[in-house]
Amino acid sequence: MVAFGWCRGIEDAELLGEHGFAYIECGLQQLQLENEALFRETLPAYLNSPLPVRAFNLFFPGDMRIVGPELDPERVRRYIHRGAEAMNRIGARIAVLGSGRSRHIPEGCEQERAEDQMLHVLSWIAEEFAGTGVTLAIEPLNKKETNLMNSVAEAVSFAKQINHPTVRVLADFYHMDEDSEPLDTITQHKDWLAHIHIADTGRLAPGTGQYPYAAFAQQLKDAGYNGMISAECTVHKPEEELPASLAFMKRVFG
Asked: In the chain, where are the structural domains located?
């Protein structure tokens, strides 16, 4: 049974619950994993959330590089370890690795070296996530946001090299549309899909634009996808847009 959620701050968990969403997807950066005092102060809101925090996005802080000469393996490994422990305590099931800035290959860095670094980071995540109940979903980002893993197929190629059950891939309707990625890539790579992000024209609320939702939903149905679907977009009038979008999502994907 598909479950619907929204990417929002933890302070909006109650609001999403009131409108009928099944879960909230929050930013991992907001847990303040590198500051023990702030982390202890922040964690209770997630442990006691009125709506389950089943997914996290915004994986790495913007100043933490995971490819290129600025990669600090000790810092990155420590962050991943703390993140895995925290998400396990909170009860999350999905961790989304977008972090376009962190994984952007800087000028002068060889593609092969960056890809090798990316594989090392993914292997560290696989190691730390084992036994936690959390699955990593690599998020392909459009070419305006990063220059590494811009399509579902590219993300799957990395996941295949890791070949671990905790490392899978996300399909994001917005990024796919931005780069005109064929929708049938979803069924082609169905065995690797662990999570879905959606938006609509202008990266606004689902149901407000012209994205080909019927075709996208059919691909998910053909792929046998029955996991979580999170809206990740700008909202101007939450009290109006959240319930309207949820009704749209249930109608399209139900």
From this structure: 3-253
